Amino acid sequence: MVTGEFKPEYRTINLYGNIRKALFVLEKGNVYFLEDSAYFLKLSPLDAKRLGTSHILLIPLFGNKITYKYDIPISFEILPITNAPYVYYTKKAFYTDEQGRKITLSYPEELPLSPMEKIKKGIPIYYEEINNRDDFRDIPQWIEALSSKQEVTTIGIMHWDGVDKDGKMVGGSEEFKEQELMSELAQEKLSSLSYFLKSIVPLPKKPTQEAWRKWWQRFQNYSFPLVKHLPAHIETFQEFIDSYRLYALDKETQKVYNLAKGTEYYPGQELLVFDVQNDKVERGRIYSEKQPDATAFVTFYAQNDTLYTLNSHFVWAKYVPKRVNDSLFYQQIASADVAPEPNRSYREVYYQDIEYEIVQCYTTAECMYFLVQKKDTNEFQVMTLDTKTGKIEGKIPLNPLLDNPKQLEYHTQDIATGATDNFVFQLKTEKGVYFLKCNTTKLLEKTLLGKEFEWGTTYLSWGKKQYYGDMDANDTFDFYSIASPSQKHSVSSPDDIYDTRIMEQDEESVVAFYEYYDGFFSGLKMQRLDKDTHALKGESSLLYQYFPVEELSSVNTPSCLKAFKINGQWHVFFAKEKGYYWVKVK
Fold first, then answer.
1. CB 3.0-4.6 Å disulfide test: which of 121, 298, 444, 468 passes with 480?
2. In terms of Cα–Cα distance, which of 550, 547, 583 is closest to 564?
C-alpha cells in the first residue's frame, strides 16, 4: 500500500505494447484493458523513503476515474511490473472526496459483465463485444465453447444515411437481433485475440480446439522472461541527451571523444572523453563566450589530446586541453576562415545568412573533406583542408564533372570508420545516382549506381573491393557492389531490426550494430558478416537490453550509436534518455 498525489503538471505516459503482455502474464490471462496509459504519482515522504524514489509510474486497471483528481492524497494497493523498476499497476484505490465520503475503486469488481457472463445469464450481447480486443476475460470458456451447439442472441447495429425529399442529409442507426451459434462466436472471439496471444506463446495458423487447449496449458507453465543486465558504463546527465553528437578516435592516446554539435543558439552539452586505456570517462567543456567558434560543429579529429574542428560557419580551429578549477576545458589556440569564397568570413553571421551549406564531411589524419552546396542552387563542390593547419588544399567543382546537369542534389550516405583515406559521396542527377570518389585535389572515380539507389547506405571497402551496405526494414542485410550496383545481395537477419543502426568494418568482416525488438525486450545487438560472401558469422551478440515501458520515440530509444575497434576489441557508444552508455564487446 502506498499513498500519493497526482499533479496537473505531470504528463501522461502512452504505454508500449509489451506492457499489455506483461499484465496479461501477471494476471494469468484474465484481464480487461480499459486504457493503455500510465500516470506519475508523487509519493508521500514515508513511502518515498520506503521505495527509494519520490515518484512511481502507476497503471490503474480500473481506468482513469481518479487520475485527474489532483493534489489530494490517494492510497493504492500496488503490484510491481516485472523488468520495470518503479512501475506498478493497481487494482484498488481509496480516497476521501470533497464531501468527506470514503471512496473505493476496485478491479475487476467494477467492470461490466463479460460477454461470457451475459450469455450464461441469458442476456443478449452486442456483436461488437465479441470483437473487443481489450477484453481477455474467460479465455478457457471461449476455448470450450468452440464445440458448443448452443444458440446465442446477439444485437447488431445498422447505421444508415441518405438524403430526404427536401435534399437534406439524414441518418441514424437501429438495433436488430439475431440468433448465432456459440461455436461461431467463440471462433470469432479467439481469432480477434490470436495476434496478441501468439506473440506470447506460439499458435498454429488455423488453431483447432485442441490446439487452443494446448496453447492454454502451455501458457499456464509460461515463465516471465527477465531482462539481461549486461555490463555497461553509464554517464548520467541532468537533461535528455542531445541526439546530434560527433565522435573521433584518438589513436595515439586510445581515447574516444564525443562532442555535441551544438548551434549558435545552443552551444551543446559537455563533451565526453572515453579513456579506453585507463577505463574511465572524463567530462569537459569546449564552448565559452570567449571562444564562440566552439559550436555548430560538423566534423572533428583528435590526436594526442588535441582537437581539430570545423563548424558550419566555415571556421577551422585547434583546441588543446587545460585545467580550469580542476575541470577539463579545451582552449582554442588557432583558427582560420575557410569559406568557399576567398577572403570571406562567416564567423559572426547568423546561420541562415550563410550562403553555403556543408552537407557531408569525412576527416582523416591528413585531410578534412567536406561537400559544400551553395544554398538555393544546385552548385556543389568538394573542399579539402589540411587537418592539422586548416590550410585549404583543394576545391573541386562538381557540376562540370557531371556535365552540368539540370538536376543535382545530395544523396545521403555514410562511410564506415577507416574504410578509405579518400572522400566518397553520392549525388543525384536526372540520369540517376552517382558514386563519386576524390582525393584532396581531383575526382578519382565516377560510377552511375542506377536511376534510383537506396538512401542512407554505408560505404565499405577492402582494397579494390568496394560495397555499399544497408540494413533494411525487411530485416535483411543488403549489399551492393559498386562495380555491379544493380546486383543486390540480401542476407536475412536473425533479429527484427529497428531504426538505430550502423555498419562498420574490420579486417575480415562487416560488423553491424542495430536496435532490435523481440516482443518483450528491446536493445542493441552486433552481427558479424563475412566481407567477401556476406554470410553471417555466428550468432548475433547481445550488447544491451531493456524493457520498454513508454511508446518508442527518438528520446527513449538508443541514439548517437557509434563503434570503434581498439586493440582488437569493439567499444560501442550510444545515448538513451539521460544516460550515455559505453559497452565493451567480449
1. 468
2. 583
